[in-house]
Amino acid sequence: MKLFVINFILMSLIYTSLSASVPYETVNIDKLLADEKMVTEYMACLRGEGPCTPAEKDLEEHIPLVLGNYCADCNEKQKNFVIKLATFVIKNRFDEWRQVQKRFDPDLSHADDFNKFIIGN
Question: What is the pLDDT of residue 23?
């Protein structure tokens, strides 16, 4: 029962923070993807292998929720960011994508549905 309550509280906090204005909403995703150094820094953060800027840290904190509910609670700007970033990384840095995926979804239980979300949007 305690575990259920703790999970409920954590999910509520994540949902509340995702619903609020978040730093990565101010990131120009097209500019980010055009900058190899920035992409490398984002990927290092998301793999847990490098320092994180506030926007990277915010995205890192939301990945479990985004993978778990396929961005159902995201606003349009957040969805656009997630879809563009994931599409780019899957296409251009697949090995790193797998590392991020396994970090946040170790058994890849959300992989198929997340891929359908990315392709469908």
Answer: 52
Cα 13 to Cα 6, 10, 41, 53, 59, distances in angstroms: 11, 5, 26, 21, 15
C-alpha–C-alpha distance, residues 11 and 120, integer Å: 25
User: Torsion angle of alpha carbons 13, 14, 19, 20, nearest 10°?
Assistant: 70
Nearest to 39 by CA among 74, 91, 76, 2: 91
Within 8 A by CB and 6+ apart from 14, the residues are 61, 62, 64, 65
DSSP output for 22-59: -GGGGS-HHHHHH-HHHHHHHHHHHHTSS---HHHHHH
Rg of the chain over CA atoms, in angstroms?
14
Collapsing DSSP states into helix, strand and coil, what is residue 106?
A: coil
pLDDT < 70: residue spans in the chain: 1-25, 121
- In which residue are the tokens 């290092």 written? 44
